[in-house]
Amino acid sequence: MFGEIRDRLFRFQKHSRNTRNEFFGTHPSLPEDILDPPAAGRSSRPTESLIDPPPTTTPSSRSVVIKPSETANQDISLLEKSVDHSHPHKDHPIHHPTPPRSFFSSSSLAVHPNVETAHSSSEEDLRMPNIKVFSGSSHPDLSTRICERLQLEVSKASLKKFSNKETNVEIGESVRGEDVYIIQSAAGEINDNLMELLIMINACKIASSCRVAAVIPAFPYARQDKKDKSRAPISAKLVANMLSVAGADHIITMDLHASQIQGFFDIPVDNLYAEPAILKYIKESIPNWQSSVIVSPDAGGAKRVTSIADRLNVDFALIHKERKRANEVEKMTLVGSVEGKVAILVDDMADTCGTICMAADKLVEAGAEKVYAFCVHGIFSGPALTRLNASKFEAVVVTNTIPQDENMKKCPKIQCIDISMILAEAIRRTHNGESVSYLFSHVPIC
Amino acid sequence: MPVRADASSGMVLLTGNSHPELAKMVSERLEIRLGEATVYNKTNRETSVDIKQSVRGKHVFILQSGSKNVNNDVMELLVLIYACKTSMSKTITVIMPYLPYSKQCRMLRRSSIAMKLVAEMICKAGASRLVSLDLYKKEIQGFFSCPVDNLRASPFFLQHIKTNIPDYKNAIIVAKSPGVMNKATSYADRLRLGVAVIHGEQKDEEESGLEDGRQSPPPNVTSYDFLPAQESKQKPPLTVVGDVGGRIAIMVDDIIDDAQSFVAAAEVLKARGAYKIYVIATHGVLSSDAPALLEASPITEVIVTNTVPHDLQKMRCHKIKTVDVSLMICEAIRRIFHNESMGQLFRDVTLDD
């Protein structure tokens, strides 16, 4: 199945070759008129039916003609908009077995994990040029997955600490003129990881990279984004300032705690959503989801919950916590009904899990048959895992924006959705200059 | 007896043309005279500012609110700030009870974040501090690179509810849409009342399902199975989650502009058995034919503050009542000027409010 995806990815990339040519035509390291790469030294792949040189000589709307396969037609229509119709080389048939390479790139050949598909698809010709993906030390597993989907290798960088605990970063490959993506999440030692990210961004920037984008699946300090008490700092704004000062040109993140955080930056921020992946999981793994109720554990998540409930066409409810007063126990009231239904709690972060465990008790009390919990960022700090083990949840589902291997071992109720494909697609589309908006409502398969 | 503003008091209060009545009330409470500055539009519609008294070394407070002429107000404010900055004033504090463009605070369909732009412009023009009332989203505080104080109108409203609504103990706080749920629960907490939520088919353009779906390619590409499509939202008709039968319904929100959604919600509440419906909104922008819609609806009363001038609308609809917040603004100015703590102003404010 992975091979199929790769083949489709290749077809996609072939179709977007013209787009890439336009994109790389303005690349600082490439001369403007490089369009036909030298065939010498490249393994000439057998021309399949997939690549037929365009026989047309008129500058018609189709500049790339591909043998129609059922999926290819759609690709053409998608990409027609991005193809420049005044392509100078349209008149003669173009053989583009390989995309133009950067002269200064020292990207090594990827070792293909699957040998037979390596021969059949010759992935070497179709890997994206001019891109380097680095991984911070917070989530190496996610970075490996993302790079696997991108057909790249994680680029080499040494991340160490000096003996006085200062972070030491050395970039191991040339990034001159490259589009660099640094993947670092707010997990584990957040301050150390944040410092590492800032230093890596700065290292790539002063090594003359073309553009540095930080991919931060879980954004650090996202909850301190407003002054809700006297003398409270707005740490999210501070982190945004630090990232801009370090030299980031673009941020890709997932499910920000509040989408206003996009406004804290002066650089473009892509806030991707895990919601399509969660909906897919609900449909596939929860039996009789059609008669479930989506519940929000607090008042702030009402909007998120109604959005999911609308897409699944089910009811919703929410839990309203009354403030603790002297001699009063904190009361939780359920607004809505869950009698005899499967309750699905949805929240964006699961930190100490106090609220959702109490919510689960309340829901079972109110007559729910089973209770599931879905959180995008599974932080699980403090007594969270013991609380979950003792709770009434059927399953707690999180995404792998934060590494979950340890947590899944300690608490068997935790399950993990892999969102590496969403991030990989976003990186690929950003790099190729394609639209990312498609991802806001679609999930790349598996 | 009002003293001249620059008679060694060190405080100068200036205002633009957005809300002269509020400025007058605040200056009376502060017992200083409004600073002498004329802000007017020249014949070619450019804003011109002429400050007739010295502001050198003074703490300048500029009171300007959003109103019907939003862009003129913003421009007046920026020019005033810059005029004071280049005239060597010591600090410039902007008091903007209703911050314009605050609804455009995030990316929607390839738009810009206009609030961020306005915030940058205000800080760049020279403001050293901003004071506002009931910001649309608290995260807007982070858009400014200067300190922002977000005062709350809720103490005034709670007072008004307790004194003017006789059987408020039999009320229920209703959130008109799930986005205002936080505000509704904070009011419900402080009044010890229950809460309900209205959800469903609303013509809410900016909050529709296409929030970030800058859809290109088109969304119903189901035959292309590389990326499976996600279903669109199927909104049910307006429903109330929670029990409002036989109670007074109090809808809380921060801005009442186009009254269409409030009227639709009120119809549903009435159908579910609420016998009186109140609407509490901090900023009564009430544009176009909102007064006529409200007059004809089952809403009993609409309670707004005087942050946005709405005298004309009051004449057309008798259900609109005003709560005066100039006391809070005056207190904020005084405390800022004397470098005192503002903690007292936030004493009864909950985390959600």
From TrEMBL, chain A:
Pathway: Metabolic intermediate biosynthesis; 5-phospho-alpha-D-ribose 1-diphosphate biosynthesis; 5-phospho-alpha-D-ribose 1-diphosphate from D-ribose 5-phosphate (route I): step 1/1. GO terms for cellular component: cytoplasm; ribose phosphate diphosphokinase complex. It is an enzyme of class 2 (transferase). One of its GO terms (biological process) is ribonucleoside monophosphate biosynthetic process. Residues 21-68, 84-107 are annotated as: Disordered. One of its GO terms (molecular function) is kinase activity. Its EC number is 2.7.6.1. Belongs to the ribose-phosphate pyrophosphokinase family. This is ribose-phosphate diphosphokinase. It comes from Caenorhabditis briggsae. The lineage of its organism: Eukaryota, Metazoa, Ecdysozoa, Nematoda, Chromadorea.
From TrEMBL, chain B:
Residues 11-126 form the Ribose-phosphate pyrophosphokinase N-terminal domain. One of its GO terms (biological process) is purine nucleotide biosynthetic process. GO terms for cellular component: cytoplasm; ribose phosphate diphosphokinase complex. Pfam families: Pribosyl_synth, Pribosyltran_N. CDD domains: PRTases_typeI. Gene3D superfamilies: 3.40.50.2020. GO terms for molecular function: ATP binding; magnesium ion binding; ribose phosphate diphosphokinase activity. Keywords: Nucleotide biosynthesis. The keyword Phosphoprotein does not apply. Residues 202-228 are annotated as: Disordered. InterPro entries: Pribosyltran_N, PRTase-like, PRTase_dom, Rib-P_diPkinase. The keyword Zinc-finger does not apply. Belongs to the ribose-phosphate pyrophosphokinase family. This is Ribose-phosphate pyrophosphokinase N-terminal domain-containing protein. It comes from Caenorhabditis nigoni.
